[in-house]
Please model this.
Amino acid sequence: QVQLVESGGGLVQAGGSVRLSCEVSGRTFRSYAMGWFRQAPGKEREFVAAISWNGGSTTYADSVKGRFTISRDNAKNTVYLQMNSLKPEDTAVYYCARRSLIVADTYDYWGQGTQVTVSS
Model:
């Protein structure tokens, strides 16, 4: 069973930085692209960033481009999300997810989420 465990969330002031981590169990982590998503209160979950299996390709939502950086360490089975210049509208529960190898453009395993709250 694959497990994803996020950490690193918390309360931060606007303009500050936070780094989220997501550790993934299993030996096949390096075979999968990974993504970060977020869900704010009363809103639908939205895509934040994704990274290819080897870290060679990344994509970002327009709302975070230039402020957030996704990266991964395959030796540690961990994917990161560095969030800089945070805004109150970045407040949300952040989830990491593993992209499916079977069904295109879907994610098959999800973490439990970590709360990030940005105060103004």
